[in-house]
Amino acid sequence: MVADELNQSPRAPHLGRRQTSLPSIIFLNGASSAGKTTLGRALQASLAEPYLLMGLDTCLAMVPAEWSGGPLGAHRAQGFQYLDLPHENGKPVSGLSHGPVGLRMLKGFHRAVREFVHAGNRVIVDEMMLGADVRDHWLTTLAGLDVLWVAVHCDLPELERRELARRGRVGLARWSADRVHEGMTYNLSVNTTTRSPEACARQIASAASEA
């Protein structure tokens, strides 16, 4: 379920209720190339309180090469692995899978985010949900915390244009465009297709400041 861009949706019971004027966590979930990291930085600049920005890329940057990425990763099936999938409407599709060790690493990262909050910090999470197991662990780990859940959308043609421009892994945007939102309930939705990061950040900051 996704809230209209200008309205908040009711929170699911497991998402809890707003406790303070600013949430402990602003959780940005969206496809590859949707502009989440740039949006997160714009949010950091616009919010009255300091927020740490961390996300999937933060976790993946810590993973040894042998356990991640492409064909040279000897243990990639256990860790993280890029997959070349069948083309869709003539377009390449590239997925990112995680094995048991990769999931263990992700769970540790989720718990680290929670501990940052327990230490008194506020966090912006920049996430691309890799599957239901990852989603469910996030929801369980953050249960009871004050979280503003934000869907970051972008039209597929623009996602793919950005993907080519940034020279990322071609096909990951198409693979992740819809699947990252499966089973999610949000408080707010933004669309970065034509709106600037600053405009989207203002929308989120306004929602975050509501008592």
TrEMBL record:
Keywords: Transferase
GO molecular function: ATP binding; transferase activity
InterPro entries: CPT (IPR012853), P-loop_NTPase (IPR027417)
Domain of life: Bacteria
Pfam families in the record: CPT
Binding site for ATP: 30-37
Active site, per annotation: 57
Protein name, per record: Chloramphenicol phosphotransferase
